[in-house]
Design goal:
Blueprint: H1 15-25, E1 32-37, E2 43-48, E3 51-56, E4 59-65, H2 75-83, E5 85-89, H3 96-101, H4 112-116, E6 120-121, E7 130-131, E8 136-147, E9 153-164, H5 178-181, E10 184-186, E11 192-194, H6 206-221
Antiparallel strand pairs: 1-2, 1-5, 3-4, 4-9, 5-8, 6-7, 8-9, 10-11
Organism: Azorhizobium oxalatiphilum
GO molecular function: FMN binding; oxidoreductase activity, acting on the CH-NH group of donors, NAD or NADP as acceptor
Domain Flavin reductase like: 24-180
Length: 223
Amino acid sequence: MTTADMSFDFANVDPEIRYKLLTGLVVPRPIAWVVTKSVKGVVNAAPFSLFNVISEDPPLVMFSVDTKPGDRVKDTLVNVHATRAFVVNLVDEATAQVMNNCAINFPPEEGEPEAFGIPLVPGTHGPVPRLAISPVAMECKQVTTLNFGPRRDLVIGEVLALHTRAGVLDPTNLRTNYDTYQPVGRLGGTMYAHLEDRFSMDRETYEQFSARTAQEAAAKETV
């Protein structure tokens, strides 16, 4: 294994290698288990690990959609364009395996929840149901979709409603109980990560920083 620093000029790197580098290094990533509904009523559930929350006012999330083999448009994107609605379900240790199963390339007429017997809960703010087994679900409406060429679309949605399993949030202060939630993060390749090892860091104010550095400077002058 090399011990030298490495640099990559992405203009000269194949997309497959870019993907390997980016998804292997930008970790851990949250997983969006996106549920959509076709115009024919088929409920689709597909995982996406290029996902995150991007704003709280307005409450916005985004996920990135690539294409199927042969550059065919994924069912998720077709359904979002048709209904402008989707539900982002988050993934924990208890649901990780069935989420991974939903990455199988099913045909449009066959939905993953039905194939794997995943119970559904009707939506409260739209036509798309959420997964009953998910610890957290966000009902969203499509705000916009940005296209970045034949193989990539970025879906941005506004969160209309948030649902959590009992015990995920402390009802008195709304803090997340990670011992109950146990989220799973995405790494590179076929690897995932438990988020069990956590630590906390306090942040100084500018005034505290100024006072501390002044005290340290004064202490050095007296030495």
